[in-house]
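Appendix C: a fully annotated inverse folding record. The material below is reproduced so that readers can follow the format used throughout the book. The structure is listed first as tokens, followed by the designed sequence.
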């Protein structure tokens, strides 16, 4: 094998490895396998995120004020209502920012 061919093979392998690493980093950050069975008080929730479409189950991840993450079923009425209220809270802060302390 000539040095040019060897260099080409190494270059291709390097590219494949970087593509594989990039795919791994773009994988689901968090998927939900079980859902919260009781309603979480809205005052305890800071924000929410939707799980990625490549997760087996669609889910909503509520981020609590203490930093914990809790999965909830996006089909539950209380989850939908909480998401709407959190969105309104966020947009209210964007339109009329809270004063700095």
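Designed amino acids, in order:
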């Amino acid at each position: 094998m000539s040095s040019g061919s060897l260099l080409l093979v190494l270059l291709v392998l390097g590219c494949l490895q970087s593509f594989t690493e990039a795919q791994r980093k773009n994988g689901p950050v968090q998927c939900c396998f079980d859902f919260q069975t009781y309603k979480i008080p809205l005052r305890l929730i800071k924000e929410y995120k939707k799980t990625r479409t490549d997760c087996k189950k669609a889910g909503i991840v509520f981020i609590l004020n203490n930093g914990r993450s809790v999965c909830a079923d996006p089909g539950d009425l209380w989850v939908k209502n909480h998401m709407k209220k959190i969105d309104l809270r966020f947009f209210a802060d964007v339109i009329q920012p809270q004063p700095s302390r």
